[in-house]
Design goal:
Helices cover 17% and strands 32% of the residues. It is α+β, with helices and mostly antiparallel strands. It has two domains: 1-294, Gyrase A, domain 2; 295-371, Beta Barrel (Elongation Factor Tu (Ef-tu), domain 3), CATH 2.40.30.110. The strands form five sheets. It has a six-stranded mixed β-sheet with strand order 12-13-14-11-5-15, sandwiched between helices. It has a six-stranded antiparallel barrel with strand order 16-19-18-17-20-21. A five-stranded antiparallel β-sheet has the order 7-8-9-6-10, with helices on one face. A hairpin with a 4-residue loop joins strand 18 (318-329) and strand 19. Helix 2 packs across helix 7 and helix 5 packs across helix 6 (220-231). The radius of gyration is 21 Å and the shape is globular. The N and C termini lie far apart (47 Å).
């Protein structure tokens, strides 16, 4: 009998529970305290029994490894570029191979249908990596007249994030991954004899990388053990989604479907910089040209309570918005979250009332996002100046 269950061949490939995918990495870390949640048809570790603050500080000071549910969809064919110019709200035809761009897919009414990272793997081959939602039916519904093919690369995604992530990735790739792989750059690398697609991206606001497996070509437990072995001297730990969620809130990273949805335009979500109205013909352009440039999502700070999804925000006694997500920030030493207001206004800087599930009514302050590092110096591997240093 195999003494290392993570290397049992039965655990190399994903299994399915109720039609949803259990990660091929699951047996590398799961224990009797693991709590799973579901996104994009994939289970992921929301909690793994470890204190979330432990994972948070590893992420901020050393490195943390996350097994995430993001799902790449491959879009290829002679008309791939023309099709994607129709689908996404920013220009992509000038993307270089082995580059990624954050992109929005909008509805015809100008609402945000989905967000994700678009990678160009070859001249007419792209991956759109999305967090959740029905991407493939949307692509099929709008593909008439385009010579394109959609396929599932069956790639699972790991995120290795934190200030020590570069030396870990360099060691794990036997020195092939260097500092020349800049922010939002990507490429194929050899990890202990296995090809892996790597991008310098992440969902944490820290320096970090995402590793994309290549379906049944990848022995996932072997890859996991290799990363953990190379990461041990640099303080690498496995962490669950709770630590990542706290850090992504601090960094002002929004979650599709919970922080924004099809009822909100990119302007209302504060994502107007990812809309290129000079590009003609993309879905939602006409509606966005007529939309008001006003923001409805802001940060929220609270000393007396930790904001929770669904908490109401009051101005006087009148509800004016709600909390979409919240956490206790170990670094900021207060509760933080996202305030989604019913109507755009000059909300930043105002003191309002949070009707908390924990403490009834408490005072909160509305702030601009992100809570710190607005220039994204951390994910670029640059030192912070002032707030945000640890």
């Amino acid at each position: 009998m195999n003494e290392h269950p993570a290397l049992d061949p039965a655990h190399i490939f994903p299994t399915y529970i109720g039609g949803n995918e259990l990660s091929p990495f699951h047996h590398c870390y799961a224990n009797d305290q693991t709590v799973l949640r579901l996104a994009a048809g994939r289970f992921f570790a929301h909690h793994n029994g470890d204190p979330s603050e432990l994972g948070y500080w590893a992420l901020r000071k050393q490195a943390a490894l996350f097994d995430v549910p993001e799902r790449p969809v491959e879009i290829s064919g002679p008309d791939a570029v023309a099709f994607l110019e129709r689908i996404v709200a920013r220009r992509i035809g000038d993307m270089k191979i082995d580059r990624g761009r954050y992109a929005l897919i909008c509805t015809h009414q100008g609402g945000i249908f989905m967000d994700g990272i678009l990678f160009r793997l070859a001249e007419t081959r792209f991956w759109f990596v999305h967090p959740d939602g029905d991407l493939e039916p949307w692509l099929l519904a709008h593909s008439h007249g385009f010579d394109v093919t959609f396929s599932d690369p069956k790639s699972r995604v790991l995120q290795l994030q934190g200030p020590n992530s570069f030396p870990i990735m360099q060691a794990a790739s036997s020195g092939a991954l260097t500092e020349s792989l800049k922010y939002f750059h990507s490429g194929f690398f050899d990890f202990d004899g296995q090809q892996v697609y790597v991008s310098r991206t992440g969902w944490t606001g820290e320096l970090g990388y995402e590793l994309y497996t290549l379906g049944d070509q990848t022995d996932c437990p072997r890859l996991w053990d290799h990363l953990m072995q190379k990461g041990a001297p640099h303080g690498l730990v496995f962490s669950s989604m709770q630590a990542m969620n706290t850090r992504r809130i601090e960094a002002g990273i929004l979650d599709s479907g919970s922080d924004f949805d099809i009822s909100m335009t990119p302007y209302e979500a504060g994502l107007e910089r990812f809309v290129d109205l000079s590009k003609k013909g993309f879905i939602g352009r006409d509606a966005l040209k007529a939309a008001a440039p006003a923001t409805r999502i802001f940060g929220l700070r609270c000393i007396a309570a930790t904001p929770c999804s669904g908490d109401l925000i009051l101005s006087g006694s009148a509800p004016v918005g709600m909390v979409t997500t919240g956490a206790l920030s170990p670094y900021l030493k207060c509760g933080i979250g996202y305030a989604r207001f019913d109507q755009p206004d000059e909300w930043s800087g105002k003191t309002l009332t949070l009707k908390s599930q924990q403490s009834d009514k408490v005072t909160c302050t509305i702030v601009d996002l992100p809570f710190y590092d607005p220039e994204k110096r951390l994910p670029r591997g640059l030192p912070l100046q002032g707030a945000g240093q640890i």
